[in-house]
LysR family transcriptional regulator
Amino acid sequence: MQSWDDLRIFLSVARSETLSGAGRALRMDAATVGRRIARLEDAIGQALFVKSPQGYALTEAGTRLIDHAERAEQAMQGAQSVLTGEAGTLTGQIRIGAPDGCANFVLPRVFADLSKANPDLDLQIVAQPRVVNLSRREADMAITVSPPTASRLSYQRITDYTLHLAASQTYLRSHPLITSVADLRHHRIVGYIPDMIFDKELDYLSDLSLDRVALASNSASVQIQILRQHGGIGIAHDFALPFAPGVTRVLTDALSFTRSFYLVRHAEDRRLDRISRFATALAHGVRSEVARLESLLAGT
């Protein structure tokens, strides 16, 4: 029977697909990781990985071992949750993946409050203009703009948020008046790089008959900065605009978008009290912070 330590190393290699990546995650020398994997393969009499120029890929035997190893991981995390006490403050490390707009404008205050309430808890934000891969344990949970389709993931809707056209007051004063969506064809459009939109919910401009994005980025935060520099007009999160002085919403009565944030995690993690308590606190914090930031725009 494999020890938990062997399975822990196996999981890290499977998720990072390299010995060096696993070594960094485990705080272990890559050569030692390689020796431990070789020893595990000798013990069970089967190869678990195939090495290629792209890294370490699971064999059929390795794929079968993944479920067993992840169940052992869940059991160890559950035991830790019991030993640290269910009613006390949270401890350890939790990593959250989130779209960069949410990560930049919503999560900082939420995480600061959670850290104050749980001083022994280490929190990490992975801000990515893509969906974080939970299966490879890039994060413990993720905030997304669409519910997941993978059956091994569970999710809850956290809150809705709104978006509007926005531009700097300086830009609007020096360019043709915008009285309708049709007028946008006479303006520089700021938005996502079309072929790098990682979720259909972010394709705001497809229904506006705009065939050119003059200033594009795969980052919502970069787009906000372009608007601040009077670059053009684009779709912006209402919760981001309090961080963009001089940028104002346009055509609020004619055009708006509503999207949702979802909290996604492994289905098995729902059995872990520590993760469940953190998920509840995180969802409450995100919901409250989005509402607070959007309320700052009331009447504008």
In short: The first strand starts at residue 49 and ends at 52. The chain has three domains: 4-84, 92-159+260-295, 160-259. The domain at 92-159+260-295 is CATH 3.40.190.10 (D-Maltodextrin-Binding Protein; domain 2). The longest helix spans residues 60-84.
